[in-house]
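Figure 2 data, in text form.
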Amino acid sequence: MTRPAVPGEKPLYWIGSSLKDIVRFPSDVQRSVGFALSAAQYGGKHPAARPWKGEGPGIPEVVKDYDGDTYRAIYTVRFAQAVYVLHVFQKKPPRGIETRQSDVALVRERLKAAQRDYEERYG
């Protein structure tokens, strides 16, 4: 599903199962994440976006609480010509507020995949 490019808007690419995962989220969560990603595509930063602690600068996350659950979307704006969604998930920590190591490892792996894709697309 592709829509026409809008001048000044960077394309948005979904890595791994990110797109399939977000369509399972409640529509309010999808809308909030969508607004944040749209801001990133135009070079801005949505108020709900904050730096993700894991892979350094250029990797924000959007956190949305909804109906007692917490949802997250992690993306990268490190690339000059595109935005990549790396991972979206419902946060279910075993304890405290810490993100599961499996999610951290998945973001790391998908960031490498985004880097490869970006180099193939843009050189």
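Caption note: Helices lie at 18-22, 27-41, 101-122.
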